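Suppose a colleague, Dr. K., hands you the sequence of a protein chain of 315 amino acids and asks what its three-dimensional shape might be. Before reaching for any lab equipment, you can write down a predicted structure in token form. Begin with the sequence itself:
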Amino acid sequence: MPAQAPLTVLLAGPRGFCAGVDRAILIVERALEKFGAPVYVRHEIVHNRFVVESLEAKGAVFVDELDAAPADRPVVFSAHGVPKAVPAEARQRNMFYLDATCPLVSKVHSAAEHHHKAGRHLVLIGHAGHPEVVGTMGQLPEGAITLVEDVEQAERVELPNDRETAFSTQTTLSVDDTAEIVSVLKRRFPQIRPPRVDDICYATTNRQAAVKAIAAQADAVLVLGSPKSSNSKRLVEVARRAGCARAQLVQRASEIDWPALAPMRRLGITAGASAPEILVQETIEAARAHYDVSIEEVVTAREDVHFNLPRVLEG
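The predicted structure, expressed as tokens, is then:
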């Protein structure tokens, strides 16, 4: 048997689960422990099939809307946040619900409320149709928020000239792309109010910085994550922009076309904020079947963020 070619795996750190995802998954698991199965979850709790299927195996039932869940069982709202109409409907039906919205998304919701009460029109930078954007826009009356997706829209958008304006962003955007959009908005609307603190979350920022560090020295980069995951897709874009043209998104190691990646000596691996570490280790083991693998960790930040569970699930 011929000797395997050497391959250095550049393992990005931080990678994988963030505190908001950890909290959301734990809310479902604790609810199942406390209230028994089934526990219903509106939409995917996070954008990852492995996570969703693992929770289904424990007794979680995922539904598109509340009318698909019985009123006498607990229901959990996903980490992405929901429009105000959703908890209102749950209360109307006397449902017991648990809100797994990431606290950093909730901060964006609170800021939107604050600006609206102050009479400001809000610009939201984000991707149309993404659950987080749907949830944020659903905090205010229709017409109170203008969505801007890219630089081209920022150049064309018309805003009310009879009131102050402010902007917020989806928490999982590309840091660099967002900076370009903000630059255009500030040039066109010099008085527009920025967020008090950057809305792009710490985990998104840290994972993008880490993938930049590995992309510049890798022949290829694999990002473990779902095609639905905004932060995972942004990691691929960031890797390509940082110099690795062969960056790609994969959900599981079984999807990887190893011959298509050859020749390579250095492979970067990272994972989106909703992808569990087990998928990273699975990918490394798959690489060992084709190469003589050595691991080099490239750590650009340390994370120690923790979010508390709802009180009803504590203890």
